[in-house]
Predict the structure.
Amino acid sequence: MTSLDKSGTYKLGSRTVKRLGYGAMQLAGPGVFGPPKDRGAALAVLREAVASGVNHIDTSDFYGPYITNQIIREALHPYGDGLTIVTKVSALRGKDGSWIPAFSREELTRAVHDNLRNLGLDVLEVVNLRAMFDIHHPAEGSLEAPLTVLADLQQQGLIRHIGLSNVTSSQIADGRELCEIACVQNYYNLAHRHDDALIHELAQQGIPYVPFFPLGGFTPLQSSTLSDVARRLGATPMQVALAWLLQRAPNILLIPGTSSVAHLRENLAAAELTLSQQILSELDGIAAGGTAST
Ligand SMILES: NC(=O)c1ccc[n+]([C@@H]2O[C@H](COP(=O)([O-])OP(=O)(O)OC[C@H]3O[C@@H](n4cnc5c(N)ncnc54)[C@H](OP(=O)(O)O)[C@@H]3O)[C@@H](O)[C@H]2O)c1
């Protein structure tokens, strides 16, 4: 048993993954655009993650674009049987790095084939459809047409499981009428708790919830309460933020992102941290009192 096993496991599609995984978005260049400053360092982060026992990696051809998936392939292909790579579709990157919705049948089909080629796979284990009605937050709108396209690609054997990202509770319910939804990936962390009720709902249905920006995203969480708790526990604020998520609900799967081996090791060590009820209540006050910034 590695220390990472202490995070526990949860079902993701037809696999069982460790609850502490890795998000590859930070491996592209600044603004998630272009190549990384140091390709060797990016390869090293991925190899260290898998060597440490990570068996769930989140990615997309949005990142780079295409570059992050190509780095994953270079670092890890041929993939071990236990490794689950989750990707997402529905956007293209403009020449200026902008994020452009790409929901047509043709665009989604091309995106699935691009991911297969760049990752070096015959079938994508999980593909998240990332809603873009509002690029930053879940917003209502029908996902029936793009989900139907993904369900068709699933029928053709190119996708094993379908997930949703940046979505509302009613979009998930509507989606489940069309196909099985294997996971939901939305913005959530210690300071950003709009999905508290949704996480509970999904837990009752056995659906994993995968928070993106678990550490606050491009500007990691800053809070005096978080720093104070971390100091008292002899941990770092990022470890406490991840341990809080692990204890928040059993269906939460973590994909913290980093471009640094040192930060990766620090983040994975959060699996060993257990927070007492009193500490959890103190940390719960961060969102209630609005004392954190991201
Ligand atoms: N579905 C979506 O719409 C969506 C959107 C965004 C992200 N995602 C996915 O979610 C994953 C996680 O999100 P994220 O990477 O954007 O944000 P994150 O995990 O919340 O935080 C990443 C940021 O925290 C820093 N960091 C990481 N570990 C640290 C540590 N121990 N100490 C100090 N700083 C640390 C990273 O910088 P360093 O590189 O310097 O460590 C980076 O700036 C992504 O990798 C991606 O796979 C999905």
About this structure: DSSP finds ten helices and twelve strands in the chain. The mean pLDDT is 96. The first strand starts at residue 9 and ends at 12. The radius of gyration is 18 Å.
